[in-house]
Amino acid sequence: MEHYVYKNRQKLRCGYTTGSCAAAAAKAAAVMLLCRSPLTEIDLMTPKGILLHLELHDVQITSNSVTCAVKKDSGDDPDITNGVLVYATVEPQIEPTISLKGGIGVGTVTKAGLEQPIGEAAINRVPRQMIKQELEQIKEDYDYAGGFCVTISIPEGVELAQKTFNPKLGIEGGISVLGTSGIVEPMSEQALVESIFIELNMLAASNTEKTLLITPGNYGEHFMRENVKFDFSRSIKCSNYIGQTLDKAVELGFERILFIGHIGKLIKLAGGIMNTHSNMADCRMELFAAHTAMYCADCRLIHKMMNCITTDQVLDLLKERNLTQQVMASILEKIDIHLTHRVGEQAKIGAILFSNQHGYLGETSQVQEICAYST
Q1: What is the C-alpha to C-alpha distance for residues 277 and 298, in angstroms, rounded to an integer?
Q2: Helix, strand, coil abundance in the chain, percent, nearest 5
């Protein structure tokens, strides 16, 4: 596929989703079933409006079915499904409908809160629509009055699933058939955010008390397990996407939300920054300097802070001047304001900040009330 995006001054090649592979394989198999002639390639128009020209693999034509595969191409995205074969087997059926099943390597939904109901194949909504749309068009093109039974299989999916979060999410036996645009954009933030949303949906479905614990990553998880009394089954990692995670949590009806994170990331919340990736904003030292300046007029100290590389170095300076408590209280007050503004009146929200070197640094005003619901 020769379609590119530019990110961080790099030219990156796009790929196509497992959903596009499944739809293309199903389309090709249906055509071969009706015309009884083998094909070597097939075209597919993606929801994004990009036309794909895809090679077919392992074509098998029998008297009552056709099977073929399309190889997944993830472009320059680091995707573990790159290169796997996505198969479709199409059989005729008397009913003029299109039925869809998951075969080997396609997971089965076993928990509530996912896009498909319990017991269904983990083939998401857009790939299902793509498959049915293509096959309805083939029925019309070939004046075919019957229907099709389509089975999507990804033989390597059984092994690949163990390298994903699927077992934790309640998708058993294989991987999911995914995609909303049909195209994989390298290093797609949307894909990461969607994976967070899937976990949130599942937690919302199983969490009757509507209390949620959020950590940006592993540092927060380790700290909370050692220092906070909380039901960890209600926790999720949000990476850098704090704002989007909060918006979704409120949408799903969570009533109490607790953030636990390292000062190096969560201090950005004191500036109202809700995507904490360094490419979006890095004002850690500026925020520390501004809050310190309210309690100390020493320009030399502020200058040292602005030249620090890590937040632990700043905390060392604050500790030397006995300013840690005052400055952290000021920072936490601002974090409280920005988090509360983001969620509005729909939820109570709090945050606990820590440092690997300096330990617990403080918490916002509603933390203890939130924790009381989950001890």
Answers
A1: 31
A2: 40, 25, 35
Cα dist. 118→101, 149, 170, 205 in Å?
A: 14, 20, 9, 12
Which residue, among 22, 180, 167, 41, has the nearest Cα to 101 in the 3D structure? 22
What token pair was written down for 78?
A: 């680091």
Contact criterion met (CB below 8 Å) for 16 and 1: yes
For 202-234, b where at least 16 C-beta lie within 10 A, e where not — what string?
Answer: bbbeebeebbbbbbbeebbbebbeeebebeeeb
Alpha-carbon gap, residue 96 to 146, rounded angstroms: 4
pLDDT in tens, 262-315: 999 999 999 999 998 876 788 999 999 999 999 988 999 999 999 988 899 999
Residue identified by tokens 């479905």 is 205
Q: What is the pTM of this model?
A: 0.69
Q: What three-state secondary structure class fits 315?
A: helix
Q: Answer for the pair 53, 41: CB distance below 8 angstroms, yes or no.
A: yes
Map tokens 């645009």 to a residue: 181
pLDDT tens string 204-239? 888 777 899 998 877 666 777 777 777 767 888 898
**What CATH homologous superfamily does 4-184 map to?**
CbiD-like (3.30.2110.10)
| Beta-carbon contacts of residue 136 (< 8 Å; ≥ 6 apart) | 98
What does the alpha-carbon distance between residue 199 and residue 313 come to, in Å, rounded to a whole number? 35
Q: What is the residue extent of each domain of the chain? A: 4-184, 189-374
What dihedral angle (degrees, nearest 10) is formed by the CA atoms of 98, 198, 155, 125? 20
For the chain, the farthest-separated pair of C-alpha atoms sits apart, in whole angstroms, at 86
Secondary structure (3-state) at 176: coil
Q: What is the per-residue DSSP string for 177-210?
A: B--SSSEEPTT-HHHHHHHHHHHHHHHHHH-TT-
Q: Give dist(CA 27, CA 44) in Å, integer.
A: 8
| Amino acid found at 119 | G
Query: Residue-wise over 315-339: b if at least 16 C-beta within 10 A, else e?
Result: bebbeeeebbebbbebbbebbbebb
